Amino acid sequence: MKKAVLFALTACCNFASADIIKCTFTEPFIDTEYSMTQSTLTYKSFENKDTVIKNVSFQIKGPGVFELVSKDGKVLQVLTLNNQGSDGMSDKTYPYEVKDNSSIMSANNGYGGCTSNYLHATETEEI
Q: Other CB atoms closer than 10 Å to residue 90's CB: what's the count?
């Protein structure tokens, strides 16, 4: 039990110290950026058309599982700290796997990879 609580606190504190969480998706080529200090989730298209959602809360659902939730209670993104995130195109491995539930991310089933201020993507080694 102590180990589970310690893991949850460690994951919480590492993630909570992230001011910005950036996620990358392929098809469509849209990135998202969540600001903890501003409580905003911004969708950035390659056409430089930004959509900003305000009053987005960051919720800890369990060890290594987090949700970004709109003010009306809709789960916008589910982030999992598992070092298996992928943007679907590059050779990078992201610390967070993300599932975006918005209609903006209808292609690729809304899966992508995310980084934070303190946890960065790494290059995947080819076999």
A: 14
Q: Under a CB-based contact definition with an 8 Å cutoff, are residues 13 and 64 in contact?
A: no
C-beta atoms surrounding 53 within 10 Å: 18
CA angle, corner 108, sides to 113 and 83, nearest 5? Answer: 20
Three-state SS for 14? helix
pLDDT at residue number 17 = 56
**Category of 73 on φ-ψ map: left (φ > 0), alpha (ψ -120 to 50) or beta:** left
As a whole number of angstroms, the distance between CA 103 and CA 76 comes to 10
Amino acid at 43: Y
Q: Does the predicted model carry a pTM greater than 0.85?
A: no
SS3 label, residue 27: coil
